[in-house]
Amino acid sequence: MKPLYSAVAARDTVHMKLIAAHLLKSIAPVFTGLALVLASVGHGGDGAPDAFVGAGPADGRHDEGGTRRGPLTISSPAFADGAPIPVQYTCKGANIAPPLSWSAPLGAALVVDDPDAVGGNYVHWIVIGIPPGAGSSADGQTPAGGTSLPNSGGQAAYSGPCPPPGTGTHHYRFTLYQLPATLQLPRDWLGYGRLRR
């Protein structure tokens, strides 16, 4: 598989460096958002590590504080795990978020990404603040109570699969990260313009 910019790099190394610098600048906010989300996993509001990170026991046992713990699950009625994503949820269709169903006993963040993207991982959607419990969303909807953060394209919204032609098969991961109920981000953090400066 040829890199996306191979023809440009062969012609003009300086131009390639400018493209790489622009790409890094445009995805830096996404990685900052992911770092904040991942750094918060497993920490309570007091900054001390939680005894629980990730999926919990299948029996839904309670921890010492009485909080119900159980597994994180996510699925879509629109397509099966490992199956092709229907066109309406891609850039070739309506480019809307697929319907989702989930269970997040302590609340969660959702990250939809493409690890096969040319130039590295591409984040299509980040949603934080998904409330504790089971839930679902309809076509084109952000999970109720959730807030979208900027994706790799700089939009605080869902951006469907849109791989460049000739780049092979791409896999899209819909991953839930369990977060403490007390997670607080600075109010101005959601302002994408501030992150780019």
From TrEMBL:
Domain of life: Bacteria
Biased composition (Polar residues): 138-154
Region of interest: Disordered: 55-77, 135-164
Pfam family, one: PBP
Classification via InterPro entries: PEBP (IPR008914), PEBP-like_sf (IPR036610), YbhB_YbcL/LppC-like (IPR005247)
Family according to the record: Belongs to the UPF0098 family.
Entry protein name: UPF0098 protein
Source organism of this protein record: Mycobacterium kansasii
Biological classification of the source: Bacteria, Bacillati, Actinomycetota, Actinomycetes, Mycobacteriales
